Amino acid sequence: MKIILALSMMISAAFASTVGLSTHPFSVDKQVITTEFDNYISEGAGKGVTAKFYKKIDRRLNVDAGVGLNGGRIENRIFAGADYEFFPDYGRQPRFSAKGIIQSASIDNDRVNSISIAPTLSKGLAFWGREAFPFVALPVGLNLNNDESSYETSTAIATGITSRFNLNGSRDLVANFEANIGLRNSFNSIVLGVSLPLL
């Protein structure tokens, strides 16, 4: 049933963060609220903010959903995703998962709905005594333009890192950085996020 749920949600071009916190090793049932600053660096794009909710369903499956508001060509978007782990991060073996994303965005005043899947590799590593989790993904998708009754395929590369940090003695937060490089019919973007795990 869990595999069916994950596959049913595996139906985005690279709009802001594609992977986000999906590869971060939260405990089961953990819920997280994230705010991200999105900087689209493609021509005519712009800057914006995104708010997300993340939940770790079980050891293999996590889901997220959110909304983004932006300036430039991408005005707003709403999205949901599910990441299913096929192989865990163990020993020298990297974690391998696939994240499916569904999204609806207003681009150049057209409503564009997209479905995509992002095969993802990640690995926990130590950097200067602090554990961090770099990742790389290859999102491929199908974008459907409702206003023009047309569609196009998209491909991008997403790479980034997540890590815990402590702000002025407060509870642990999680930072994420992600860069998306558009290869075909997708946007280039840089994303910086801060997440608050809920108790």
Question: What proportion of the residues form beta strands (DSSP E)?
Answer: over 45%
CATH class, anyone?
Mainly Beta
Mean pLDDT: 86
Shape: globular
Number of DSSP strand runs: 12
Order of helices and strands: HEEEEEEEEEEEE
Fold and architecture overview:
With 199 residues, the protein is mostly beta strands. 4% of the residues lie in helices and 64% in strands. The chain is built from one helix and twelve strands. Strands 1, 2, 3, 4, 5, 6, 7, 8, 9, 10, 11 and 12 form a twelve-stranded antiparallel sheet that branches. It is globular, with a radius of gyration of 16 Å. The model is unreliable at 1-14 (pLDDT under 50).
How is the topology of this model organized?
Elements (H helix, E strand, L loop, with lengths): L1 H7 L22 E10 L5 E11 L4 E10 L3 E14 L7 E13 L2 E13 L2 E3 L2 E8 L2 E6 L4 E17 L5 E13 L4 E9 L2
Antiparallel strand pairs: 1-2, 1-12, 2-3, 3-4, 4-5, 5-6, 6-8, 6-9, 7-8, 8-10, 9-10, 10-11, 11-12
Could you give a short description of this structure?
This protein is mainly beta and 199 residues long.
Name a few traits of the molecule.
Porin, 1 helix, mainly beta, twelve-stranded antiparallel beta sheet, 199 residues
